[in-house]
Amino acid sequence: MDVTKVGAAIRYKRIREGYTQQELAEFLGISYQAVSKWERGLCVPDTMYLSKLAEILNIELMDLLDRNIKFLDEEWKGALDLSHAAWEQRLQGDRNKLLQIYPMILCYFMLAGIRDITICSNIREVSLIRDIYNDGHKYGLEIKYLISGNKKIELKESTMYIDDLVFLYGSNLTKYFWHGMDRKDGVSILTRKFTGVQQTGVAVDMQRLITKTKAGDQSILPVMFVPDGFSRVFASGISQLINKMNLYAEPLARGMVSCVITREEECINVLNCKNAVESMTGEKMYDLEEVSRARNLLLK
Fold first, then answer.
1. Phi-psi bin for 9: left (phi > 0), alpha (psi -120 to 50), beta?
2. What was the pLDDT predicted at 172?
3. Whether the predicted model's global pTM rises above the 0.85 cut
4. Which end of the chain has fewer beta carbons closer than 10 Å to its terminal beta carbon, N or C?
């Protein structure tokens, strides 16, 4: 373990998360001088503090100790692409219910540390979303809009790409998003598991490389991480990524919930789930202002 590099990683993540040395020390129940010694590479945190430290800094413990945070230096963009015609045909129900899904999608980008987001949809949908969120500055975001049919989303930089309305919920989504962002040799796509249910899915080898599509125990979710340099292959479709061995699965952990919203009933189920969790915990789920404050997006 390189003490100096671990200290630099702690300092980098502390500043990125918006904490002072004093605030971090108070969370851990220690003095700010101890934090200062860590960051200067004079010593490493005691094992009793490591897990809590990694949790506060929103990073996996081994990534922190290995200083495996280089990918966070890269500027990632976000794209919500609802330009496909089938999307609107599937959801003809209550638009007010559907509009309650958009804050969830925006929060996914925010949890990944992404502020620059492009939304592409039909003119009516873009108008509705723009009326609610404007340019996103209220939440520390920079939202751009494209009308489907006029322009297509072109991925010119590393991009977190979502091409359907999806509900994701679990203990640490940020960790799974960052796993996808950390890969540089191909596109990462979130997957979920099914037991005893035949779904169109993917086969994954020991390195989690998707090698072929099949009906099986894994199902692709519409959340992908496209690193810079893979936009051309990505634009040609998932099959090309599989053929070129450039598509990797990022499975959601046990206990995480996912639902691709393709029907009005699924939209209602998702909102009922959200309301139930909020009622039981007393906390808001996917509240843009709360996430913005927690991620210090307004300060960037």
1. alpha
2. 74
3. no
4. N
